[in-house]
Amino acid sequence: MYPTPPPAPHRDFISVTLSLGQSYDGSKSWRRRSCWRKWKQLSRLQRNAILFLLTLLLLCGLVSYISVADPWRAVNGRSAEERKMRPADPPVLPAPQKADANPENFPGVLPQKPKRHFRRRPPNLQIRAPGKDSEDRRQDDTQRRDEAVGDARREENTQRTVVSWRGAVIEPQPGTELPSRKAEAPHKPSSQAPRIQNQAASPNERQRAVIDAFRHAWAGYRKFAWGHDELKPVSRSFSEWFGLGLTLIDALDTMWILGLRKEFEEARKWVSKKLRFQKDVDVNLFESTIRILGGLLSAYHLSGDDLFLKKAEDFGNRLMPAFQTPSKIPYSDVNIGTGAAHPPRWTSDSTVAEVTSIQLEFRELSRLTGSRKFQEAAEEVTRRVHSLSGKKDGLVPMFINTHSGLFTHMGVFTLGARADSYYEYLLKQWIQGGKKETQLVEDYLEAIEGIKRHLLRRSEPRKLTFVGELAHGRFSAKMDHLVCFLPGTLALGAHHGLPADHMELARALMDTCYQMNRQMETGLSPEIVHFNLYPQSDQKDVQVKPADRHNLLRPETVESLFYLYRLTGDPKYQDWGWQILQSFNAYARVPSGGYSSISNVQDPLNPQPRDKMESFFLGETLKYLYLLFSDDPDLLSLDAYVFNTEAHPLPIWVPPRGA
Ligand code: DMJ
């Protein structure tokens, strides 16, 4: 028998009494009828109160289920692979500033501690607010970190775009904002600015050797080429390309990172007093964007000095006429004084890598100034290139016509000159924007599959994995030294959640790039190599044609060594970089100051200096070497910064405060 029901309670308060006596037959229908009768007997107030209570209970249940279920799934439900692909913790960067904001008003901010990769050491670079005592700073920092984490969580709950690629599930980085939305709502000036001062850790022995190399290079530039584009170290003179102090601007952030404050201040004075863009001079859109615009933006971010942002905005404005073409694919050149833009004299084509490797800088300029036009112009190019036909499994041709907007010279595919940084910027824009712009990463992933399918081979006898070229269906075992950016880019992608086999490929290609240096008599890579594909021959793996024996002090091998060491912790990568630095010192260092590109990497007795120090030697090569020799993953953390193709670090975006 069912127990006797309790007496009906006193009705001064709202209650529900369900009598279960009488002719109970245990059937469901009886229970339904009986409940319904009781329900009808209740007053409207009682019924509303019950409904309200039930709804409340339901909501509480739902909320606690969600909060328990998510971590539970994360712990138990994920496959090992999925867990590997979780994006890094959200970086925290200061909100952007308006160009006219007063730099004195911007105290610094510590970025959120990113996930550590291998070793724990005190950070070398600290972002500080000069003039504030450390206690204030700590409190401010804690508060900002908390707020930023809160922002990131809120964002995570509202936006969850998932990119899916051949079984890979890549979640967007939480806490970042879609660039288009950012540009729509110009940012209010922030009370924060990033400032990096490396007063904390003293450089180790190898880093000191890089500083020594930089000082030597800088001494030559300062003495013989001050304010000019490039040093000619042998003839102790200079050469002009744009007439804009290219080396000086390219080297600004390197000086900051290496802690060369006196040199930085002197260069800053030149930028302030002498750098004028109102000049009747043609500049190459790509080269000037990655070196000058990128250099100024990065100097601004590291120093917090508003001068650099003002210069960047001025320069960016002067580049804009390049985008006024029938197709919206920009011309290669623009006159920054007159605003006349044009393609090269011999063609109306632009280079694919050039028009697709200006986006990081233009997007960042929009973010900082609140002016959308830079970002819109650059992203229109990305959109158009994305939808073009003529690709081969994600691989792009090398030229694009500025009138028709179509690819030209179809059927030739390379990861070297004219195409290289197209692939690099697909990945890096995706990272910059917080891993939400799925089209970018999908194009990148497709291209990597295309590389594997069409361009990857192994040499003989050492079976080095290399990336060759394809011309109208014919494979060529030729690889530019420029392609050595790829191991680093692949490793960076794997770090940000892309498939783990990208890291394996990165390691294999890194070995090859090292061998391209190692197998040369000077220990320095030539500009182009050809790989031997024939097992029976007595040839070496790496072969060089006489016309390709030069070395321009390029950064790509040491750039990738930096990423590989930072992301794996394997010390062999540092050792390899150390060997390369020794080789630069042995064969490219000019006693009176500066380093020179050389004509013959196979002749240590006469490497034939070419009398030119490219600006990227200071902007990239020495910077990457210095970072390679650092054991501190917080020194320009890869979770907080993305390096443009000229090694200028730009912040990974976070949402503006209070958004
Ligand atoms: C640099 O200007 C950049 O790294 C660019 O992406 C390729 N060429 C040089 C360095 O080799």
What tags apply to this protein structure?
659 residues; mainly alpha; three-stranded antiparallel β-sheet; 20 helices; 44% helix; globular; disordered N terminus; binds 1-deoxymannojirimycin
List the helices and strands and how they pair.
Elements: H1 28-41, H2 44-77, H3 80-84, E1 126-127, H4 134-158, E2 163-165, E3 168-170, H5 179-184, E4 196-197, H6 205-224, E5 230-232, E6 237-239, H7 246-258, H8 261-273, E7 282-284, H9 285-303, H10 306-319, E8 333-335, E9 341-342, E10 349-351, H11 352-355, H12 359-369, H13 373-386, E11 399-401, E12 407-408, E13 412-413, H14 420-432, H15 438-454, E14 456-458, E15 465-467, E16 469-471, E17 474-476, E18 478-480, H16 486-495, H17 501-518, E19 528-531, E20 542-543, H18 556-568, H19 572-587, H20 615-628, E21 641-643, E22 649-651
Antiparallel strand pairs: 1-4, 2-3, 5-6, 7-8, 8-9, 10-11, 11-12, 13-16, 14-15, 16-17, 18-19, 19-20, 21-22
Helix pairs in contact: 6-20, 7-8, 7-9, 7-20, 9-10, 9-12, 10-12, 12-13, 14-15, 16-17, 16-18, 17-18, 18-19, 18-20
The protein binds 1-deoxymannojirimycin.
1-deoxymannojirimycin binds at residues 421, 482, 554-555, 616, 620, 645-646.
Note down, in words, how this protein is organized:
The chain is 44% helix and 9% strand. It contains 20 helices and 22 strands. The longest helix has 34 residues, at 44-77. A 3-stranded antiparallel sheet has the order 7-8-9. Strands 10-11-12 form a 3-stranded antiparallel sheet. The protein has a 3-stranded antiparallel sheet with strand order 13-16-17, with no helix packed on it. The model is unreliable at 1-30, 66-169 and 173-195 (pLDDT under 50). By secondary structure, the chain is mainly alpha-helical. 49% of the residues are buried. Bound molecules: 1-deoxymannojirimycin. Residues 421, 482, 554-555, 616, 620, 645-646 line the site of 1-deoxymannojirimycin.
